[in-house]
Amino acid sequence: MNRTQRPWLVPAAITVAVLLVIARWFLRRSTQENPTPIGFVLVSVLVTLALAGVLVWGIAKRRRSLHRRVRAARPQHRLASGWSDASLGTELERIGVTERFRPQGGVPVVLAWSTDGLELWRAGRLVLTVGWVEVVR
Is this model's pTM higher than 0.70 or not? Predict the structure, then answer.
């Protein structure tokens, strides 16, 4: 899991790319004789930004709801949200966990820990429980 990965980074990059494509298209299309209406350009930019905002809001809401479900199930545990990478599913299979993870990674997960040990949660389901003795090994 990569703690520096941000869920908003991909939508932000896509938004910038779309805005650049729109701007390039309008600049190419616009000539002295046939200027592009500025209202159309502004509406296109605003629609793109609104769609990106909805996408980022949806990702953040999904993450918060996962965190809330784990907090409700384990109120005394400390929690940390993160994203699985491509190797997590393979490593969990190796130790006998049957939960399926996408091979390319990018699955939101929550780690919960207490004095008893460590738990890994995905989509509101407990995937793995490990005592601290096993973690140290």
Answer: no
